[in-house]
Amino acid sequence: MIKPLLKGLGLTLRTFFTRPVTLQYPEEKMVMYPRFRGLHELTRDKEGKIICVACELCAAVCPANCIRVEPAEGPTHQRFPKVYEIDLLRCIFCGFCQEACPYGAIILRENYETANYTRKDLLYDRDKLFHAYQK
């Protein structure tokens, strides 16, 4: 009966003299690992045009079925996404959409702050995906 008590006290004393791992969150932010998959971003080319051609491969490969793409065609018969939505409440951040995209139009950044007040704020449309990281 005394052996488990001494074992617990030994563990407490061992960890008592180590540095705390707690971060003071708003002031200190965790440095993410290079392979971390966070919030999505749609990319543009150097001229500012949409790279995505609405091939819908990202939506097809998504296991959570959280991506919705509606293609449209421009005056030069070039395809682009008229509607591109990602529901972050359903997303499991697996990164399959990034791997499936043949043009590299969608990438997952290291931003992990997804807290919002309403469910509607976690439905990212095309414009929100473009401007999420230009703050």
- Compressed to H and E, one letter per element, the order equals HEHEEHEEH
Helix content: 10-25%
Unreliable runs, pLDDT <50, ≥5 residues? none
Q: Structural class per helix/strand content?
A: alpha+beta
User: How many distinct folded domains?
Assistant: 1
For the record, what CATH class applies?
Alpha Beta
Mean pLDDT: 90
| Overall morphology | elongated
Question: What's the story with the biggest beta sheet?
Answer: 3 strands, antiparallel
User: Could you tell me how far the N terminus lies from the C terminus, measured between alpha carbons in angstroms?
Assistant: 59 Å
Per DSSP, what share of the residues sits in E-state strands of 2 or more residues? Answer: 15-25%
- CATH topology tier name: Alpha-Beta Plaits
Radius of gyration: 22 Å
Q: What does this protein look like?
A:
It is built from four helices and five strands. The chain is an alpha+beta fold and 135 residues long. The strands form two sheets. Strands 2-3-5 form a three-stranded antiparallel sheet. The protein has a two-stranded antiparallel sheet with strand order 1-4. It is elongated. The relative contact order is 0.20.
Keywords for this structure?
single chain; 135 residues; alpha+beta; three-stranded antiparallel β-sheet; 5 strands; 23% helix
